[in-house]
Amino acid sequence: MPKGQIVKALSGFYYIESEGIVYQTRGRGVFRKKKITPLVGDYVEFDTTSLTDGTVTKILPRKNDLVRPPVANVDCAVIVMSAIEPDFSTYLVDRFLIYLELKDIRPIIYISKMDLVDEQQMADIKACATAYEALGYRVYLSHEFEQEAFLADLSDELVVFMGQSGVGKSTLINHFIPELSLETAEISSHLGRGRHTTRHVALHKVKDVLIADTPGFSTLDLIDIDKENLPYLFPEFANRAHLCKFRECSHQHEPKCAVKDALENGEIAQFRYDHYTSFLEEIEQTKPKYNKK
Fold first, then answer.
1. Keyword set for this entry (predicted)?
2. Hey, which residues does 205 pair with through a beta bridge?
3. Global confidence as pTM
4. Is 164 part of any known ligand binding site?
5. Which of 55, 59, 73, 236 is the 20 to 30 A CA-CA neighbour of 132?
């Protein structure tokens, strides 16, 4: 039975690329009964009698999946943030980072509109970029952007773009896939954010990179993250956790905490620790409460 990857989903049809040929298929009826939805990016088995008449028969195991955009087996996500309008926010960057760490997706940070900032803003953003790079995250600044180097960094990966509304996700996707002509989102001065611009998702090959043509999350909640797992989504915390006195250290009030020691020694950025405590509080406050019978 042939195997391939779904590269587009549209109006109930799934377009599967297999050995350089794209087949139009539909999902098995049993998928709907079992509430199974094939996703763009899925590796599948399928039956086919022609290029336009096939059936997805089996979805192979996924390494991850996203809700927005609805894509599976994502290797890398580019977090698009703007330098201004809306202002650059490490708090939002960190929300995206912990989500991607949870999903085992490699993050890249791209900061747009760098040509619009003053010298002080430039210095502040570059300092943040240096802090993220020290943690192993790749950061690209728009005024220094080189497409060839960027694509080389993404070689052989399936890539999605996500970030706040109005930061230029669609513009950046258009840069790589000009034939799309995605409507770009302008900033609403009243709301301070961009209008959502979405379309059906498909994968486009740019050199040896598969790029999803639909922008992803603009905001994220932390519903999928529990407080015990949160510290391990911060690499600089995870790398020191074994040095803490207590195995399940929350890195807050416990004695002999390696993370707190590193924070005091300047080895962990204060803004990262502050965001960690903020996320922890949010998770604790939103944890379901069950009534006792």
1. Cytoplasm, GTP-binding, Hydrolase, Metal-binding, Nucleotide-binding, Ribosome biogenesis, RNA-binding, rRNA-binding, Zinc
2. 210
3. 0.88
4. yes
5. 73
